[in-house]
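tool_call: predict_structure(chain=1)
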Amino acid sequence: TCVAFVAGALGWWGPKFIQLGLKLQPGSENISLSDVSTKFGLVTVLAGIVGVLLGSFLSTRLRPRFPSIDPVICAIGIITSAGFLLAVILSTQYLYYTTFFLIFIAEVTLNLNWSIVTDILLYVVTPTRRSTAEALQILVCHAFGDAGSPYLIGVISDALKIVLSGTTAAVALTSTISNTASPPSPEVDFHSLQYALFTTCFVEVLGGFFFLFTALYIVRDKQNAERELEGQDNPALPTHIYADEPHMSRSVPDITT
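tool_result:
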């Protein structure tokens, strides 16, 4: 959910934020949003491919030696992404190409989670319940993640524009009604969105701590799922429906005889 929250916010506001920051740099005042969006999209696609493949590779290689490594990889990835994303937010108005490089690293480490989280869900849930678990995971992930994060960032940014412009909400409302409000300065536009995007860094760190907490129980949950699966595959064991019936406590050969 935290990964989807950040991915949704960056996908919606990332190009606009970078454009506002680059326009504050001397010589880049006329940079267009379409140009920034194209570069941002290419970086995002490449980072997604690299991140998903790298996450799967690390999980496959390290899990035989460290059974609880999957959520640890996710935690390291998302917390590392928070650091690089913070660097992006702070450096956009000063650096050009470095900004896109930092975004690439931030998104690669963020995308380490996708394949691993899916794998975790599959091996801690028995096969008969996996479809339901996957559906619930997708619902919660997007409902509390990328479905609302762009709107939340926009609301925070709009509120900060009022504060940074030195006006009150009442004055802003009156000016809007009378159509006499002057647009915020480029600096106010940039800094209001900059401060709003700091929320994504906090969410990433929060998600990292949740992954570390998951690492404490991942092995036990996997073993529980495996034991339950072994019981389902053994016809000599009673199912939960007939477990209380005395004659079902005997083995299958005894019952048939």
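agent: The chain has eleven helices and no strands. Proceeding to next step.
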